[in-house]
Every structure is written in C-alpha cells, then in structure tokens.
Amino acid sequence: MAERELSKSPGITLSPNGMRSDALLQVQDLRMHFPIRKGFLRRVVNHVKAVDGVNLFIRPGETLGLVGESGCGKTTTGRCIIRAYEPTSGNILYRRNDEQIVDLAPMGKQDLKYYHREIRMIFQDPYSSLNPRMPVIDLVGEPMKVNKLARGQELEDRVAFLLRRVGMRPEYMRRYPHAFSGGERQRLGIARSLALDPRLVICDEAVSALDVSVRAQILNLLEDLQQEFHLTYLFIAHDLSVVEYICDRVAVMYVGKLVELTTTDELFAQPQHPYTEALLSAVPQPDPRFRARKQRIVLEGDVPDPANPPSGCYFHPRCRYSDGSLCANEEPALRETIPGHFVACHHAEKLSLRGVAVRDIAV
Fold first, then answer.
1. Domain for residue 216, yes or no?
2. CA distance 11 to 326
3. What is the enclosing helix (H) or strand (E) of 240?
4. How many domains does the chain have?
5. Fewest 10 Å CB contacts: which of 275, 293, 322, 354?
6. pLDDT at 352
C-alpha cells in the first residue's frame, strides 16, 4: 500500500491506524470522484477522478507545497482535507493537541465543528471570498461569534489585534471590503483565518491573484505569522518560484495523483519524475546570464481527461522516457527511492533529470 511506503523512513514509528509519529496530518489513499450524470433520469454514467489515491503527510510547523497544472486536483485535495467536500474514500488522519488521532474523512457536520477551529483556509480570490455587505469587524470576527468564543468589547479587541498582526490599522474595522485593494483584502482573509487560533492553515493559491509587487509582502507576512502563532501550512500553488520561496517540502500532483514528494531543495536540484523536470524547466530564470543555457521542455499532447485517464502511468503518453510497455500497462506506486524522497515512476533510479540550481527567487 502507498501509505505504508510513506512510512519507511528510519526512526519513524506508526500508530495502529498507520499514521506517522512525526505527522500532524496524514492523508491516506484519498479519492474524490464526482459523478457524471446523463439522460432524463440523470443516471451516473462515469466519474471525474479529481483526486485519485493521494497519500501525503504534513509535519507540525512546516510548510508543505502542493503544486501542479490547473485541474490536477490540488484545490480539491485541500477542500477534502478541510471537509468542504465529502471524500469518496480514504482517510484524513489528524493529531489533536492531546496526541489522540482522529479520522476526519467519515465525520459528520456536528463532529467537524471542533476541528474547523483548528483547520482553516485562505482562499485564492480576495474579492469574492469576503462578503461585500459586512464590515471588517464582522468579517474577521464572525468565526468567533459563530463559535461563541468572544463578543462585545472582547471581540472588538481581538479583531483589532488581528488587524495589527496582518499589517492593517484597527480603525479600518468599520469599513467595508470595497474600500480596500486586493492585497489588503487578502490580509483581511488571513486575519479571518487566524481568528480561532488554528494549528493548520490551507493556503489555496493565496497569492496567485495578487500583483507581483504585493506577492512578496504577503509571503513574508505568512512566514512571520507562522513563527508567531506556531502554524502549519498546506500551500497550494502552481507557481514554482513562489513554492521555492516559502515551502519546506513539495508534493507534485498530476491528474489527481501524487507523483513526487520531497524537500524543496532536493526537488529543485534533483527531480526524479519526468513531469517535475518539465515543470522546473518553465520556472523563470531572473539572471540573464543563465537564460540562454536554459532549455524549456515542451510536453506533447494534452493533459488526460480525469474522467477517462490512460492505463498504467497517467503521464506516460506525454513522457519522453516512457518505455511503451511497463509504463503503459502498470501504474507506478509512490515509493521512497532515497530517504525522504518519494516518487511514482518505474524508472526513477535510472533517470538523470535536469533540475534548477538553488538561487534567490524574486517573487
């Protein structure tokens, strides 16, 4: 099983349900299949396999990046973890403060209320994620009102504290979202996500809708808040330059499956999956001295339809290293090739793939 492969690192013990001893959250064989209905009776004729057997883990205090092309299932994975979607199958194991391990996947709405305090989300669009009819004090304070944690002056003081921590003035709490820029609205979204003192924050493309000039400010803010509030991040993104800047480890997704998982430095320097190599070749090179040497890998064909994926390795129709036999007929398991480096490729040990030199990224 793939979840067992994720637990072979030396010094790591397993709980009875298979959770690593060093993990805050561990996803095991997570699947989210959306039904396709046709005809007058709306019968199910097929499924869109948005998430198809994902296995990953997040350690306390780290930032795990989840990357891939648009439509690969990374946002759906994040929404399954926070249980905005009810997964088709799989486990979402979460370690509480008292070290008790619970599975969030089968929980009902009533049981999930407590865990929604500890797992929060920052959304991609800072415009549509804030109710335009609510002032800032209600936007940021609403989670505390709903959970009956603060009211009156206590609530106002807490909102003022959160606004200061995200770089905004407390006097703004009576204003409405239309009075703020995109970067300021995202700061409000961050303040709202911190209202309940969470442990895990899912950042769903949190900076992709922002101007480049604002992006670095928000990334630096997230890093500062992580240190101050002892946060753990799942950072969903498609921009590898941003991922290199903020993430400790990176998980790469392709058509609903995880194809590579390792530290950020290792991934950029020595990728082991051909899809990762292609993604890295598209990372902009800020130093003009090295641009001429950089060769972009252009993948042939289109991304497979998640409702009708190819047999074997999903990437094999576009892979220039495919052997046409094993790759086309047998699905590769996500396995640990070297300590801490997991890859789903039959030929990972035989390939010598091109990475990107470790460097400073201008985001």
1. no
2. 33
3. helix 240-246
4. 1
5. 293
6. 87
Question: What is the tens place of the pLDDT at every residue in 87-122?
Answer: 999 999 999 999 899 999 999 988 999 899 999 999
Q: Is residue 168 situated within a structural domain?
A: no
Contact call for residues 192 and 139 (beta carbons, < 8 A): yes
In DSSP terms, 253 is beta-bridged to 258
Residues 203-227 have pLDDT tens digits of 998 888 888 889 999 999 999 999 9
**C-beta of residue 112 within 8 angstroms of C-beta of residue 83:** yes
User: How far apart, in whole angstroms, are the C-alpha atoms of residue 267 and residue 289?
Assistant: 23
Q: Which residues contact 16 (CB under 8 A, 6 or more apart)?
A: none
CA dist., res. 193 & res. 140, Å (int) = 8
Give a yes or no: residue 188 inside a domain: no
Percent residues over pLDDT 90 in the chain: 69
171: exposed, middle or buried (Cβ count in 10 Å: 0-12, 13-18, 19+): exposed
The pTM of the full predicted model, rounded to 2 decimals, is: 0.89
Q: ∠ at Cα 273 (269, 278), nearest 5°? A: 75
- Note the pLDDT of residue 241: 86
3-state secondary structure 304-351: CCCCCCCCCCCCHHHCCCCCCCHHHHCCCCCEEEECCEEECCCCCCCC
> Of 270, 214, 257, 207, whose CA–CA distance to 56 is shortest?
257
* Structure confidence at residue 2 as a pLDDT band (50, 70, 90): very low
Q: How many CB atoms lie within 10 A of CB 333?
A: 16
Q: Does 102 fall in a domain?
A: yes
> In degrees, to the nearest 5, what angle opens at C-alpha 115 toward C-alphas 140 and 52?
110
Q: Give me the CATH number covering residue 45.
A: 3.40.50.300
